[in-house]
């Protein structure tokens, strides 16, 4: 039986893209991105899913597996974190928040089943339960100057600070100055959506939220980019996704060594690519300095409001500094670079 939330989205004109887990659009991805760039939008975050860890050992369990300090996450607080391989490569990235029942972990939908199973292998005698809440909770993104007004129209409060959570039947997680994620019981999701839309927020598809993530420099690991990057390559420590004082976790030695002993060779940058065909996440990048050897990959790509495509590109720092980076081959389309909202050292 199909979820009433998905039935509602179909009724209001959302169309899912074939072969892309949870990705949908309202008309076209390019139109959705332009709406996000110019106004207030509401986005079904069906390209992400939600796990819940609850029980008396939940904090210790997650703390021992993830890159951030879960023990210090306050009630009604949020943070970024990651689950890594023994070689320090990111297997999943999360937005995590804490409520009265435990911890909620938002991650890419195409990784949810595998990560749920993988984390479950570590439970053993720990006193906790790990649930997939995706069928029961609708995740909705709200962005733009009218976000606070839209929340008020829906009877919801804007959390006072970034990375804090307004609790209640509907949870509101403030991601940045103008963006929130709503975790809504499926039975209430259509009603909340209608109230947000009635306030003037425009429905938009997955590409709109992904473009906002790209502009904010927030990486989301998906199946196409899993097990490719150490956290610092994705600027993850710059957005608060890594704690270097906590104890051991899978991959911790590599992450710490990269921070303190090694010279970081790759970073993530905001890039633009002109062209008519959308490059795929995971596409290789090339630079004259590295010849026919790939110097990096695209992490995420969406249409750009002005045409062409915006992307998060993970590449050799030397290639970025040369300003000579191309898509797909040394003779491919050239990348131009913009500035992220945080400083890359």
Automatic annotation (TrEMBL):
Entry keywords, A to Z: Transit peptide
Alphabetical list of Pfam families matching this protein: GCV_T (PF01571)
Keyword Transit peptide: yes
Alphabetical list of InterPro entries matching this protein: GcvT/YgfZ_C (IPR029043), GCVT_N (IPR006222), TrmE/GcvT-like (IPR027266), YgfZ/GCV_T_CS (IPR017703), YgfZ/GcvT (IPR045179)
Keyword Transit peptide recorded: yes
Residue ranges occupied by any GCVT N-terminal domain in the UniProt entry: 25-231
Signal peptide region: none
Name used for this protein in its record: Folate-binding protein
């Amino acid at each position: 039986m199909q979820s009433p939330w998905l039935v509602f989205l179909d009724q209001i004109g959302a169309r899912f893209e074939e072969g892309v887990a949870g990705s949908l659009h309202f008309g076209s991805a390019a139109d959705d991105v332009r709406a996000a760039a110019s106004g207030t939008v509401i986005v079904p975050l069906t390209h992400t899913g939600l796990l819940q860890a609850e029980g008396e050992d939940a904090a210790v369990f997650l703390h021992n597996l993830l890159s951030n300090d879960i023990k210090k996450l306050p009630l009604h607080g949020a943070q970024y974190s990651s689950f890594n391989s023994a070689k320090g490569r990111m297997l999943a990235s999360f937005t995590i928040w804490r409520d009265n029942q435990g911890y909620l972990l938002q991650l890419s939908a195409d990784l949810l089943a595998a990560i749920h199973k993988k984390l479950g292998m570590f439970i053993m005698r720990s006193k906790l339960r790990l649930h997939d809440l995706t069928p029961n909770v609708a995740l909705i993104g709200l962005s733009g100057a009218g976000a606070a007004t839209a929340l008020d129209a829906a009877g919801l409060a804007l959390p006072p600070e970034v990375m804090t959570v307004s609790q209640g039947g509907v949870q509101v997680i403030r991601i940045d100055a103008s963006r929130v994620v709503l975790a809504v019981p499926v039975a209430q999701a259509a009603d909340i959506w209608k109230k947000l839309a009635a306030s003037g927020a425009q429905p938009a598809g997955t590409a709109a939220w992904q473009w906002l993530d790209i502009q904010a420099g927030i990486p989301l690991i998906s199946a196409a980019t899993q097990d490719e990057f150490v956290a610092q390559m994705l600027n993850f420590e710059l957005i608060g996704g890594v704690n270097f004082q906590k104890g051991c976790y899978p991959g911790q030695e590599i992450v710490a060594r990269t921070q303190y002993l090694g010279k970081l060779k790759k970073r993530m940058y905001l890039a633009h690519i002109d062209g008519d065909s959308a490059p795929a996440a995971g596409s290789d990048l090339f630079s004259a300095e590295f010849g026919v050897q790939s110097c990096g990959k695209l992490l995420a790509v969406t249409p750009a409001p002005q045409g062409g495509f915006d992307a998060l590109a993970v590449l050799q720092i030397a290639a970025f500094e040369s300003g000579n980076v191309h898509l797909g081959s040394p003779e491919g389309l050239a990348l131009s670079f913009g500035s992220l909202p945080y400083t890359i050292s």
